[in-house]
Amino acid sequence: MKQNTALALLVVGISTLLSLALACVAPFAAVAAIAAAQMRWPLAIGTVMAAWAGNQLVGYGLLNYPQTSSSYMWGAVIALASLVCLFVSKAFTSSGWLALVTSYLVFEGAMLAAAWPLEPDYNAFTATVLAQVAALNLMAYTLFAFANAGLGHPIAQRILVRT
Question: Of 31, 36, 45, 96, which is most buried with the most CB atoms under 10 A?
């Protein structure tokens, strides 16, 4: 159980740091996929929502994102899409990579669907941007998977048992 909690903290921390480093772009699909594969429902939902909250804190608190109704709606859409990704990823936990790909497609599909009524600015959906976001999610998922494997290492297990 401590390993899953430690993984959740690492996932949220890494996701939040990536949000800061990449001007609020976060690997929500990767967060959902790793949470679905490695955590029970309550912790998985908490992890996804904490990653979302970290992203929102970075955006509004550090990057001075505009505090407009449209911006708040996008935040809600991102939260909802992230939860949908988690639920969809749970169906593919036998293959983490399939869960990641499915989660990414669901997330980007939700963002595209929301773009039409909220702000029909499709510049965020060019092939270049989508490839960059896919690469970010792939990198983050790989990092999360290695972190999870590292947490299972005997040395890490001794540290986790002591705390």
Answer: 31
